[in-house]
Structures are given as C-alpha cells and as structure tokens.
Amino acid sequence: MAVLGGLENFDKNLLKSDALHQYILETSVYPREHEQLKALRETSEKHIMGIMSLPPEEGQLLNMLIKVLSAKKTLEIGVFTGYSLLATALALPRDGKITAIDIDKSYYEIGLPFIQKAGVENKIKFIESEAMPVLDKMLQEVNDDVLYDFAFVDADKNNYAKYHERLIKLVKVGGIIAYDNTLWFGSVAEVDPSFPKEALEMREFLLKHNKFLASDTRIEISQISIGDGLTICHRVL
Amino acid sequence: MASNTETQNGEQGRHQEVGHKSLLQSDALYQYILDTSVYPREPEAMKELREITAKHPWNLMTTSADEGQFLNMLLKLINAKNTMEIGVYTGYSLLATALALPDDGKILAMDINRENYELGLPVIQKAGLAHKIDFREGPALPVLDQMIEDGKYHGTFDFVFVDADKDNYLNYHKRLLELVKVGGVIGYDNTLWNGSVVAPPDAPLRKYVRYYRDFVLELNKALAADPRVEICQLPVGDGITLCRRIK
Q1: Which domains does chain B have, with CATH numbers?
Q2: Exposed, middle or buried: residue B77 (CB in 10 Å: 0-12, 13-18, 19+)?
Q3: Which of A45, A154, A180, B143 has the fewest CB within 10 Å, making it most exposed?
Q4: B69 and A222: CB-CB below 8 Å?
Q5: Has this prediction a pTM greater than 0.90?
C-alpha cells in the first residue's frame, strides 16, 4: 500500500486516551498473545510501514470470531507481514485452510519464519497477486461446497466496494466478511488539519463503503471501534 | 459510569441521545458510528425501548445501541438458543437477545428490580418475544447456586450476559463457568468502567465509580489469568469482555 506519506505519524488509537489503550493491551491482550505472534509483531514494528500491521487487540477479536463461528475455510485480502494471517491460522482447527492474497510477497516473507515456528504454515496458501483477478477466478469456480466461512479484508480501501460484490458470493450465508480500517484514524467523523491528502482520498471511499454496508440487506453489521475500526458483516441472505 | 449533571442543557440533550459518554477519542466519532452503522439498522422495537429508557432517571445504566447491535450479532453467530442475563434494567440488551434467538429460544433473566423491567416489557410483548423470557426478581447468586446444586444445569447455557453489580462479577464467574457449555460465551459489561481503570489516583471520581473500580480492576486481572476461558476485551459501550469457555 503506497498510501502512507505522513500516516505513519498518526496514532491508530481511537480510544479516548493512550493510557486506556495501553491498559487493554497490558491487561487483556499481551498476557494471552502467542509467542510467535508477539515475535512477528515486534519485527513488524521496526518496519517503516509497521503501522499497517494488525493491532494485537484485533488479532484477539479475530481469534474469538473464528472460534465461535467454528470456521474452517477462510480468505484474507491484504497480508503485509502476516499478523492477522498468523492469528487466523492459530485459531483455525488442524485441518483449517486460509487463502491469503497480497500484491507483495516480500512482506509476507518477513513474517513467514514466525508462522513456520508456530507450526501453522501448512494451513496457508499464499497467492502473490492483485486480489480482483483471483476473486473473479474463484467466482467462476464457485459452488456451495467451496464457500468460505470467513473473509478478512485489510487492503486497498478504494477497492473495498468491488471486493464486497465478490465476497458476498464467495462467503457462505451465516459467514462473516470483516473490513478493517473503516473508521480511518477517526477521520470519518472529524478531519485533523494535518491529515495527508492521499489519506483524505481513501476517506471518501471509506465513507461511501460504510454507508453502503449499512444499507446492504444481504448482511447484518457491527462496526467495532477496535484498532482503526473493524466492520463485521454477517451474511444473512 | 460518569454522570453528565455538570453539562449545560444543550449538551445534556446530546448526551441523552448518545446514551452516555463513550470510550472513544471524541463524541463525534461515536455519533458517526451510531448514525452510520447502528441507528439505520436498529429494529423498531429496540428504538422504542431505547426512547422509553432515555426518559428514565437511571438511563445511564442502559446498554448502548452499538452494544445491543453487537450482542444481537454475536448471539446469531454462536447460534445461541439457551441464554442467561444477569442485570436487566429496562430490557434493552434483553430485547436485543430475544430478537436474536430462534422462536424456541429461552432467556433466564434476573434483576433485583422488576419495576424497571416492566417499563420495557410492553415493547417486548408487542414484538411477540415475551414467551422466550423467564424473568426472576431478586439477586442472582442464590439462583445460580440452586442451579449448580440441582446438578442438571451444568453446561446448558450457550451465552450469558452479565451487566450487574460489579462487586459480584467474580462470584458470578465462578458459577457461570459451570453453567455455560464448553465453547459457550460469557460477556461481562462495563469492564473499562468509563475509562476510570486508568484514572490517576488523585482524579476526581464519583464515589460509586471509585468504589466499584477496584472490583473491575480485579475482575480484568482475573479473567486474563483464567485458563478455563479465552478472552477478548472490546471497547464497545463501556467495555465488554467476552469469555469463551474452553474447558
């Protein structure tokens, strides 16, 4: 994602204080964080685009969602160094499978050693590609037996709407599609004057996407103020 | 939860609409979530119950609309059929639950105050959902102890929502872990206690906030260390901690 110019200086914390955010992390998240997730996180934090990595409290939520869904087959669009991918892989049962798509494999390779050490590499099929053509190909082959239980989208915001039209057919009724960053540093409500221009462009897409999801009767939604905003969509039709 | 008696009339009106202060960086952000993702989807009955509750003097106790929406979704995700609620007030989360359960779903709902429940009951009845609810007036601990002694309720609940007296949460937890099934979920409300969990020692807190804060801090530590559950502490509403029983 080339959008960072300046965003890396913005705090992704949507809560009313850093202290509160830190409290949640230290009390409920870090004590439970798998050691390979921790190691992956610490390595990602050193990366110049480290802000793209999934916040660990969100990884904990992903784990909970996957387990209560009894998910087995999942899809991930946007991998970066693989925090959400590893969190997902750890949550899935032994025969669980994840198809993970990202345009840049070199980031994934930063996280891969931790995924291997966690013993879950065999659950992952990584595809280096733009997501759209992969999804379109899946749609050609789709039937009820191959639908996904869960899809996690943490990628190019300007394509969220287009991903949605494909994912709504690839995820089963009763399954979940989750979109990350839907509160976009809080800018959906108020724009900080120093907010980078490129990020403002993405904001337009997110405002539109949020409105669309709220009106889409094929899903029920819940927009959680965790991380940078996660909208959980439960497919009902 | 902090009250808003210090604010002026206009702000107080807005606060009432929001319900109570959120944990987020700004009221504007919280309002955005409500206006964009919550209210357009809120079932008519829930809206009606929320508006009735807003007029009640203790309305700060109510479950917020975003939390109700999340609970409703969670219950559907876990295919809940048999649930329990400790702490009902006027019944917003109870209604959210009843809407999520199938027609033969059941909720054991307990509160020391039947009067408040009866404020919301007409809405629940109008929605055709009252048959799912077994309301018991009185403290919850004796009921839980009775069920445990009885022996046939172990592992029979899919989901339990606890939104009650914080100084008893750990006492509830001990019993609920037997009553909820393996794989079932317990949700504890107010675990971020209006952000007071991180208030400095000299912060001006209302007496009851300060009093219960110690229990909330203790609860959070205990849940994080409990090997029988996997947890997830969400900054939804006043903070919900979901606990999934794993053994």
Answers
A1: 42-245 (3.40.50.150)
A2: buried
A3: A45
A4: yes
A5: yes
